[in-house]
Amino acid sequence: MKVEAVALEGIPEVAPGDDLVELIVGSAEPIGDDDVVVIAQKIVSKSEGRFCDLTAVEPTDRARELAAETEKDPAIVQLILDESRAVLRAVPGVLIVESQHGFVCANAGIDSSNVSGDRVLLLPIDPDSSARRIRDGFRERLGVAPAVIITDSFGRAWRSGQADVAIGCAGIEPLLDLRGSADSNGRDLAATVTAVADEIAAAADLARAKASGHPVVIVRGRGDLVRDIDGSGAVAGLRERSQDLFR
Which of 126, 127, 139, 146 could form a disulfide with 35 if both were Cys (CB 3.0 to 4.6 A apart)? Predict the structure, then answer.
């Protein structure tokens, strides 16, 4: 099996209201039904206008307390609280939360890199809906329905460093459940559930290269994972709270 990841050239700086499908289709790379279009969260958030001006944020007492604990800007901490269901860990330099989406991550995914002035960028309100909308755009413009994965960089339990994961998807299930099938020796697989959307996200990140200006990558060679229906979305890849050993 051959899997190929191709970073698209010529995607311009994205502004609120920009049509991402139009920008992607305008690149020279053809897109087919068996492809997976992997899109960095940042340009999805920018196109959806998910900017916030820090100078307009009024921190609460709780935000100021956490800012003192974590050595962070109180305005940033207030935004993190606004975008979160729960604070899970607060130590100097680190604020781990459960976001409103259900993601366990640092700072609720709020990002200030490559954003000008006093603004920061929030995650899309509903990344799965964003992925479905982009996939619908490909259907309308090209008559094809590639899978779409929206990615962001997350830290990982048990491991150092960050890797891109799927925070939104359409046309592909985030998990490939192999339980009940047999391994190469004929033994039943009892626990193997592969996070295929996350694996594709990480593969795309290798082709993208950070700060390279390549926010969109086409991954080919896994058309077997692409589905006609949009599917359950990346939310189906979240671990049940009762099975989360890190809370």
Answer: 146
